Amino acid sequence: xxxxxxxxxxxxxxxxxxxxxxxxxxxxxxxxxxxxxxxxxxxxxxxxxxxxxxxxxxxxxxxxxxxxxxxxxxxxxxxxxxxxxxxxxxxxxxxxxxxxxxxxxxxxxxxxxxxxxxxxxxxxxxxxxxxxxxxxxxxx
Length: 140
Prior knowledge:
It is built from five helices and four strands; from the N terminus they run H-H-E-E-H-H-E-E-H. It is of the alpha+beta class. Helix 2 (29-40) runs antiparallel to helix 4 (77-95).
C-alpha cells in the first residue's frame, strides 16, 4: 500500500511544480510596432533614425538597437543610461506584467545593418528591466 501511495503522490507533486512555471512569451508584431513607433517618433529617444528589436530564442532576453548619431557621438554615459532606462520603462508598459523578459539591453549604433545581431560599433546599456518590472508591477 505504501508503494501505491508513492505513485499517487508523484504525479500530484509534478503537477504542482509545473503550475509555478511561467510561460515564456515572445514579443508580438503589434508590440514591436508600438515600441518602434514610440522610439522613432522621438517620444523616448529624440532624433532616432532607425530601431529594431532582437529577442533570444528563450524569450528571456531582448535588445533594442537604435541608430542615433547625436546620442552616439555625445559619449555622455549618463544621457545614454537615462535613454536606456526610459526605453526600458516604455518596453515594460508595452509588454505588461506578464512579460517574459528578465534582461533587456539598449544598444546605440551609427550603422545597423539589421542582420539579427548587435552591431559591432554598438554601445550597450542595461535597461534595468528586472528593477522596472518590480516597481511597475509589484507582486508579479
